[in-house]
Amino acid sequence: MKNLLHALERSLALSPVGIAVELPDGTRVGAPDAEVRLRLADRMALVALAMGEIGSVGAAIVEGRVALQGSMRQLMAAGAALLRTDPARDGTTHWWQRVLARARSRAAHTLRGDAQNIEFHYDLSDDFYALWLDPRRVYSCAYWRQPDLSLAQAQEAKLDHICRKLRLQPGERFLDIGAGWGGLLLWAAEHYGVQATGITLSHNQHAHVQRLIDARGLAGRVRMLRLDYRQLQAPEPFDKVASVGMFEHVGRAQMDDYFRTVHRLMRPGGLVLNHGITAGGLDNDGLGAGMGDFIERYIFPGGELLHVSSALAHLARAGLEMVDTENLRPHYARTLWAWSDALEARQDEALAILSAQHGPEHGARALRAYRLYLAGCALAFERGWIALHQILAVRPSGHIEGGPLPGMQGDYPFNRSYMYEGAGAAAP
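Structure for Cyclopropane-fatty-acyl-phospholipid synthase, as requested:
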């Protein structure tokens, strides 16, 4: 016990934010005028805190075994100081562990399992998400084209950034894999004049987007389907494909099949943009220090992260050629802090919504989990433990028009200027 206390006191002294900890027997350690206060109900929480397992401490907070006082920003600053390992390097390293992880991944990511995992997260409550997302409910990394944009403006900038990268043109067939609450799907249809198809596994998202399609008179140009990407059969190939915040749910063992499916759904010469969270380390499929376990248990069951180099290898094996990759990691840190701050400001409303839909006990647990999740992920992106990459790829057409020999070509220009020049979207 003394060794644990000494270890904890050394860690607390390193924190840039004052932390005070009250032990189960009433003993107090740490700063007397602390900005963050933790009251522990059992010895296991003390062990986790002293060992820097901040994900386990987060789980104890969610379960009510640790009482917390202090803001999320202060707590994250303190939590980073308690770490004993690099969360981006604390992962699977031995070959046999990777084999077991791959076997678990393949067993977990069935059609039924993935549907249940998506429903667990995205069908929690539309009203809850609406409290802290932007009005379009874009639940992915925003893009601060200019530093003074609001969150809503930065999300619209992200939607347009994706459409520009894909060089969307009126009349093109556009597929949005994992279309969420329809932000990109409707933006592409209304601003770029495409024929848009979105897919999701979420009951709530499907119903929400269908209402928007009907309300905006887009039934002839936009459709939203509730099915798995592996089940989609297209009578005609799509010209352009986007997958935003979805491939994190695919699983490492399914990644080759995922990109082969994307390849199958595209016409030769078409473009795909894959926007997703990537691991900071080469070998880990989630965050260390217990943070990955926390997210798996409370937020995203079945989620797995790949390093961008692994994602590119899977993409290449599927016959797709990467033509541009952009890391938006700092943008996601800012996005998550915006979401976190918005949720912190509306905790009472959030608790009322979640309690009404799921009961007071589960509602309170869910709110504690999301408060920690949003702020914890903001910290992880700030520190580079995870990243966000937009990967633009082409399905080569297999020929160069007018050339004497077969070659590789696609709808991609010789430079990137088209992505950034000008401020407006193409006319519908």
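The chain has two domains: 2-82, 98-420.
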